[in-house]
Amino acid sequence: MSDQEQSGVTGRVTDLGRDIGEYIKQQRASAKISLRQLSKLAGVSNPYLSQIERGLRKPSAEILQQIAKGLRISAEALYVQAGILDVPHGGPVVDAVRADDALTERQKQILLDVYESFRRENATSEQPPVE
């Protein structure tokens, strides 16, 4: 790999770190949680969490899961934002909920959980009775 290609890859990784850090910071702000509070809730050191938010560190999937738990949002949302998972597809209702900027990640996840529970319930009730 050439130096130019290497620097492009490094730049993309740095951008991902900045993107996930900014996303975590936005989620923390919308939840009205201080950096120190999130640090305690997630079990991640305050300095390390600060470095993640500033894009200086790229957290592992395990750390993202802990942060998601502290923020009370789905780990999947953080994985997608960090580039670990592809954006899931799920039809027009799921896409509309995910695209709604007026909802927090937690609200989106709750709506999607309720929606999926209704779909599962209807799928089992529509099955013909066993004779």
UniProtKB/TrEMBL annotation:
Keywords: DNA-binding. InterPro entries: Cro/C1-type_HTH, Lambda_DNA-bd_dom_sf, TransReg_Diox_bact_type. The keyword DNA-binding applies. Pfam families: HTH_3. Residues 24-78 form the HTH cro/C1-type domain. Transmembrane segments: none annotated. It comes from the Bacteria. The keyword DNA-binding applies. This is Helix-turn-helix transcriptional regulator. The lineage of its organism: Bacteria, Bacillati, Actinomycetota, Actinomycetes, Pseudonocardiales.
